[in-house]
Amino acid sequence: MSGGKETPRQKMIGMMYLVLTALLALQVSSAIVQKFIFLDESLRAVNKKTIFESDELVHKISKAVASEGGKDKPVFDKAELVRTETKKIYKELEDIREMLIKVTGGWNEEEKTYNGAKEEEKVAIEMVGSEE
Fold first, then answer.
1. DSSP assignment letter at 107
2. Radius of gyration in angstroms for the set of CA atoms belonging to the chain, rounded to a whole number
3. What is the pLDDT of residue 49?
4. Which candidate, 79, 75, 119, 74, places its Cα nearest to that of 100?
5. Could you tell me if 32 and 46 are in contact, meaning their C-beta atoms sit under 8 angstroms apart?
6. 111 CB contacts (<8 Å, ≥6 apart)?
7. Within a 10 A sphere around the Cβ of 116, how many other Cβ atoms?
8. What are the pLDDT digits (tens) for 96-113?
9. What separation in angstroms does the CA of 63 have from each of 57, 81, 82, 90?
C-alpha cells in the first residue's frame, strides 16, 4: 500500500486490509462495550449479595448485643456507623451511574445495551467538566 508501482490486484488487497482493519476496530469497540455491560451486571449482583450479607451480619451483632446485656454495644455502634457510611457512598455511586446513563441516552431494553455506550465526550463533560 505504499504507492506507485503496485498492480491493481495489490491495490485491491491493500484496500481490503484497510477495510478489514476498520471493521475489526469497530467490532472490538462493540465487544468492549458488551464486556463493560457484563461487568456492570456482575458487580451489581455481587453488591446486592454483599448488602444482604452485611444486613444479616449487623442483625446477628444486634442480637448478640441484646442477649449479652449490651456488653458489645461499641462493636455494634461501629458496625452501624460503617453501614451508614457505606450506604451513603453506594447511593452516591448509583446516582452517578444513573445520571451517566440518562445523559448518554438511556438503556435500550430490546438490544440489552446502553444507547450512548460510546459517548465518551458526554461522560467526560459530566465527570470532569467542559473546557469553558
1. E
2. 26
3. 93
4. 119
5. no
6. none
7. 19
8. 888 988 888 888 888 777
9. 10, 17, 18, 26
Q: What is the pTM of this model?
A: 0.63
- Grid cell listed for 126: 459530566
Q: In terms of Cα–Cα distance, which of 103, 106, 111 is closest to 127? A: 103
Tell me if 1 is assigned to some domain.
Answer: no
Domain count, the chain: 1
Extract the C-alpha cell encoding 27: 467490532
6: left (phi over 0), alpha (psi -120 to 50) or beta: beta
In a domain, 77, yes or no: yes
d(CA 56, CA 58): 6
Residue 101 lies in domain:
8-127
List the grid coordinates of 118. Answer: 460510546
Q: How many CB atoms lie within 10 A of CB 113?
A: 14
Structure confidence at residue 34 (pLDDT): 79
What one-letter code names the amino acid at 28? Answer: V
DSSP string for 73-101: HHHHHHHHHHHHHHHHHHHHHHHHHHHHH
In a domain, 3, yes or no: no
